[in-house]
Amino acid sequence: MPDLESLRLLVLVGELGSLGRAAGELGITQPAASKRLSALERQLRLVLVDRTRRGSRLTPAGHVVSDWARRVLDEVDGLLTGAAALRAHRDAELRVAASMTVAEHLAPGWIGELRRAEPALYVGLQVTNSTSVVELVRSGEVDMGFIESPSIPTDLAYRRVAVDRLAVVVAPTHPWTRRRRPVSPEELAATPLVVRESGSGTRETLERALAAARCGPAQPLLELGSTTAVRSAVIAGAGPAVLSVLAVATDLSEGRLVEVGVEGIDLRRALCAVWPSGRRLVGPAAALLAIAGRAGP
């Protein structure tokens, strides 16, 4: 596998138009940078950089790989930000709980922006389902929470920070990929699905949407405790699932999953920040709320 520093070097060559300047940015010598790029080209079996006396420029293949590399580096930065927040939980200055979808796809970016503005701030993040987030906020174990549940308890204050959509997804070999008409609410309710556990905001959103369409509850084929587990089961061919488009965007674009059209059912939902009613958010909590409201999809 290519190492991250080689990918970072490639991105910098594309941005700066110079191998020497890219090497200086990383604090290495130009010969070392050239050797690293050559090793990356051998690994990928592609020519990524045109080296001339006038400088170094990315080849067409280099531009494509550089774009992919930038996405990988952004995901790694999000991972490191999220991991740092989890480590800091016990002695955090700002204690936050977030549901699975928010924690995996949105919260790392929000927390990263907050920490860039306040480098000395420690943020502790607990990741759980929406029902547990509510209980953590109520008990005072966290200062604020982010949930994906369609119902907000009356004893909590809340603000919508983003809108999400659930999608019916299947493996590419599933018969539903050959359908010419959308799946109806009745068919969805009658089909065994791979689902999240009770208490999950995704599960509650689906159940409420089916009830609004005057259908019975979803029929669980498998009940799993995380979005990642549900995704993996669907990719392996276990059956259909209803998941956030945030969680399956990459799988859809790369062909591991296929979205199936539905009609007669509203699978949109609000992602909300919650905190104890009657309490005004101040300091880092208020700043995080503002960032989430600006950045949410």
Give the overall pLDDT as a whole number: 90
What is the percentage of strand-forming residues? 15-25%
Gap between N and C termini: 32 Å
**Total strand segments:** 11
Low-confidence stretches: none
Number of helices: 12
The succession of helices and strands, N to C, reads HHHEEHEHHEHEEHEHEHEHEEH
Pfam family, one: LysR_substrate
Keywords: DNA-binding, Transcription, Transcription regulation
InterPro entries: LysR_HTH_N (IPR000847), LysR_subst-bd (IPR005119), WH-like_DNA-bd_sf (IPR036388), WH_DNA-bd_sf (IPR036390)
Protein name: DNA-binding transcriptional regulator, LysR family
What do you see in this structure?
The protein is 47% helix and 22% strand. With 297 residues, it is α/β, with parallel strands linked by helices. α1 crosses α2. The model has no long low-confidence stretch (mean pLDDT 90). Residues 2-59 form the HTH lysR-type domain.
